[in-house]
Design goal:
The complex is a heterodimer of chains A (about 60) and B (about 450). With about 60 residues, chain A is mainly alpha-helical. Chain A contains two helices and no strands. Chain B has a seven-stranded antiparallel β-sheet, sandwiched between helices. The N and C termini of chain B lie far apart (about 65 Å). Classes of the chains: A mainly alpha (about 60), B alpha+beta (about 450).
């Protein structure tokens, strides 16, 4: 995949599918909430980088 | 014996008789066993699968994003792995103790093979139950610890916070990458010039400027000599300075190198451990009773680069000394100066000078669960870029230190007596063993920002 924005989008999609919720893995609600906030924050952060790479590629 | 005594003793005997009735004793022990049936929650295998997904993503992200992005993913993987290991161990211990409790319960309700109570064996039941309570308590502490690590990592997604506030993505990415770097201090802790909260506010403040001020601010950004200068300009905007002051500030810092900017616009480097000095002068308390004052000055400087510059421009030692005297007087109107600064005075000063309401809270660190949740609040505030003054002491409150950072379960503390930032394991807060690093063992009060307002 040569388009960096597309490559980053694919990495994010794979990671997001595997990690979106921690379900009962985290055990307690306080951990689940903190995990969900972290996962959402980094989903958005990668989205910003995708936007920047896309613009650099002339999208 | 009076008749009332007779009645009381009779009641007692009857109660004891009921408790020692084999049926009652068996029921009570059954209830206890039922109450501890569920192991501490969590799924180690699922946690390890999550950790692996973060690790794989970190590898894939490395060629496409700045280093801080894969680093955060790697640290998330480590936090998940640590939690998996902790949960696995707690569940193993729970299984072991439940089996021991069953055996102890059998002994306490049987004499030989006969179903008769054996009070001499009750000690063992009580011991096993206490051990199980300790396992559950440890699982709550582990939950607090890992939740703090996740909060720390969420706070590092700074570019997204900037975009959320309204900054253009390309600008947000560049601003989020600007760090304070002072020679001699490591970079193991996140020390962006702008915290996630400040980046979000920067977008909001820019959007709220009048058209004329907005145009003026964009001109300042265009005239700036570096991205670091632009980050400091945004920090000054967030601190609430009017455009005239921002224009003067921009002129003062224009084309200065990052070494000059970091040395003059902040008083400490929150990136790691070491001696904090500015312009060859230690940033520490120089009087017996100004530990709180020194923490206040640093906290305000972390929020406002113009304030920091007002001290570092010119004769820093003299200005710093004068400011310590001024702040100490201002915060101790009704409090004897010899006792240092009161927690109320600390909270009042920070509320008035940072734009964020601060409240002080007493902490009882003899209660492990209470200190664990307070620690979570402290590190959450630090993760959002707010230093947190912490009052420590022995039998009585004695000294303020400042929590300025957090990473992987460790807390970065500025200790004003030495002027050093030191790494303190979170476990030392919980156990009341802070003495080697802060001079006193116990945490007794904290001054926390109320970021919900």
């Amino acid at each position: 995949m040569n388009d960096p924005a597309e490559a980053l989008r694919a990495i994010r999609a794979t990671w997001d599918r595997a990690t979106r919720g921690c379900g009962e893995a985290c055990g307690m609600d306080v951990v689940e909430r903190a995990y969900a906030e972290m996962q959402a924050a980094w989903f958005d952060e990668l989205g910003v980088h995708i936007a920047v790479l896309g613009r650099a590629d002339g999208e | 014996m009076a008749s009332s005594d007779y009645h009381q003793v009779t009641t007692l005997v009857q109660r004891l008789g009921r408790l020692l009735n084999p049926v009652t004793l068996v029921e009570l022990i059954r209830e206890v066993i039922a109450a501890v049936t569920d192991p501490p929650p969590g799924d180690p295998a699922a946690l390890e699968a999550l950790a692996q997904a973060y690790r794989t993503a970190a590898q894939d992200l490395r060629p496409l994003t700045p280093a801080r992005v894969p680093t955060a993913f790697t640290e998330a993987a480590a936090a998940l792995d640590d939690l998996a290991e902790t949960v696995r161990e707690q569940r193993r211990r729970h299984t072991e103790l439940r089996l021991a409790l069953r055996a102890a319960a059998h002994d306490a309700t049987h004499v030989g093979a006969a179903p008769l109570p054996d009070p001499t064996a009750l000690d063992d039941v009580v011991r096993r139950v206490n051990e199980l309570v300790a396992v559950y308590t440890a699982s709550l502490d582990a939950a607090d610890r890992v939740a703090s690590r996740f909060t720390d990592l969420a706070g590092r997604a700074r570019a997204a916070a900037g975009v959320d506030g309204g900054l253009p993505p390309a600008e947000a990415v560049v601003l989020a990458a600007q760090m304070v770097t002072v020679p001699g201090i490591g970079d193991g802790y996140d020390d962006g010039i702008l915290s996630a909260a400040q980046l979000r506010l920067a977008g909001w403040r820019r959007a709220g400027l009048s058209p004329a001020d907005h145009a003026a601010f964009i001109r300042l950004l265009g005239d700036a000599g570096s991205d670091a200068e632009r980050a400091w300009l945004h920090k000054a905007l967030v601190a609430g300075h009017p455009m005239a002051e921002l224009i003067e500030f921009a002129g003062t810092i224009r084309d200065r190198d990052t070494g000059w900017l970091d040395a003059h616009l902040s008083l400490i480097d929150r990136g790691g451990t070491g001696n904090q000095s500015r312009l060859a002068h230690d940033v520490r308390q120089y009087e017996d009773t100004t530990c709180g004052t020194t923490c206040l000055i640093i906290t305000r400087a972390e929020a406002d680069p113009l304030y920091a510059l007002s001290l570092t421009a010119g004769d820093f030692p003299a200005r710093f000394a004068a400011e310590r005297a001024r702040v100490h007087d201002e915060t101790n109107v009704l409090w004897p100066e010899a006792l240092g600064t009161s927690p109320q005075g600390m909270a009042r000063y920070l509320s008035a000078n940072t734009g964020i309401r601060h409240d002080w809270h007493l902490v009882d660190d003899t209660e492990a669960r209470r200190i664990s949740s307070v620690l979570r609040e402290i590190v959450a505030a630090a993760d959002h870029g707010h230093p947190v003054p912490v009052l420590v002491g022995g039998p009585v409150p004695r000294h303020y230190v400042l929590v300025v950072g957090h990473s992987a379960g460790d807390v970065l503390v500025y200790e004003p007596t030495s002027g050093d930032t030191v790494r303190v394991p979170g476990a030392d807060f919980l156990a009341g063993t802070l003495q080697p690093r802060t001079g006193f063992p116990h945490i007794q009060a904290v001054v926390l920002p109320d970021t919900a307002h």
